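Quick one from the shared queue. A colleague (R.T.) flagged Sugar ABC transporter ATP-binding protein as missing a structural entry in our internal table.

Convert sequence to structure tokens.
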Amino acid sequence: MPARDPDAPPVLELRRVVKSFGPVVALRSASLVLEAGSVHALVGENGAGKSTTVGVIAGVHRRDGGRFEIDGEVVDFASTAQARDAGIAVIYQEPTLFGHLSVVENIFMGRQPRGRVGIDRRAMRDEVLRVFGRLGVRIDPDLPADGLSIADRQIVEIAKALTLDARILVMDEPTSALSGAEAERLFAIVRSLRDDGRAILFISHRFAEIFDLCDTVTVMRDGAFVDTVPIDDTTVDELVAAMVGRDVTELYPKQAAPIGETVLRVSGLTRVGAFRDVSFEVRSGEIVGLAGLVGSGRSALARAVFGVDRYDAGRVEVAGAAVRPGAPAAAIRAGMALLPSDRRRHGVVPAMSVARSIALAARGRLARSGLLTSRAERAVSRAWVERLRIRASALDAPVGTLSGGSQQRVVLAKWLATGPRLLIVDEPTRGIDVASKAEVHRLLSALAAEGMAVLMISSELPEVLGMADRVLVMREGRIAADLPRDAATPEAVIRAATGG
Ligand SMILES: Nc1ncnc2c1ncn2[C@@H]1O[C@H](COP(=O)(O)OP(=O)(O)OP(=O)(O)O)[C@@H](O)[C@H]1O
Ligand SMILES: [Mg+2]
């Protein structure tokens, strides 16, 4: 890294930045200083204003007040193109590539170098391969972006930032959809970019990775700056206290519940290429954890049980009655609900109101009781907004205007509003801040105590072990172990998941 002039201004500085959306004040006083050669974490509860801060930096939002400087010069980006030209690149949780275009075409979108005859494809391809080489990744540059995993799509975005020679990289929850190994690969790349002298802003709800990767951390609360400290001078407890301004209660408030009759019975379920001969039961009052590595077949199994995907053999029963395969509507009528892991794509319609979004899946039930009015919709939604503490300015606010974590809760509310007998949750606390995780756990525990059967997929081992009465471990499409709570130690689960 080139030696830095100690008197040089920071690469990026925000000072008391203000941003409102109509009546909603998203940023009251956001401040942030980024230095070259540093990985800087930005933490805060859901709705604290992290993504809005990113929006200001990226030219998506225009600030209403405060200062924004790059290299000591005041800037005011009117577009994302202006931010890009100033050396800023943003990597989002869900990369925004064009699915039908190739990797190369995406990287050079709108700025193809010209050769003698039209666009110089060879030069573009060589440049992409050079950058991939530098990043130490192997991705086929001719593949359409659609065919890539989320992790690879993020790397394509990073490669794009490098070809643009971005000096400031902003990553808004980049790891929330990645497996452990994919996240590790991303961190290796982030470290090499840092050593290169770039400034990186890293947003995450996962403290382990923040302490592993970042050197500095800024805490935000309610749209305002709280503190910036070197990572070595703080602890998780201190950060959490600064984020929430209060003490956080126990993270896994598991309560004992009477276990009743079988609600879900899955027998011999097979979907070729995804899972094979899977049989298990979930009983009333029981939380069954479904552990396993990413790709072991857990989400595919959940989608088949709920009828989103078809299966090739086997049977799904709820309360003793067979559920028609491949028909989510039938599953909902049978009393099932599925909170999918990919909630951006399958969860919400951004333009739909909070009230309608929550009441949507419960419509059948509301209509049967003769209640399908917007009043009923609002009443049902209001109850869940309160119970899940969803931060929305109004019930008729579009879901797309909520923070990422609040949108996640809207999807959870939507499924809970159907009053299911069996609730399948796939990564229920993904994207939810650390302080609110305990609330989601408390809710799941309370629902089980009220007699609901819960099947919980989670890649967070402590969450599975903390909440489940029984842990099923999947490996390569099969149930490799069925462990009662007492036997479900981290070692036992990992051994079953890896076959080690
Ligand atoms: N386009 C918009 N219109 C109205 N309100 C908005 C808009 N964008 C954000 N907000 C509001 O601004 C506040 C801050 O949201 P922001 O997305 O910045 O939070 P965040 O810190 O990124 O949270 P999370 O951890 O959940 O992603 C929230 O109350 C949100 O509802
Ligand atoms: Mg956000």
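The two ends are 41 Å apart (CA to CA).
The pocket of adenosine-5'-triphosphate (ligand 1) is lined by residues 21, 24, 26, 44, 46-52, 391, 401-406, 433 (CB under 6 Å).
Added to the table.
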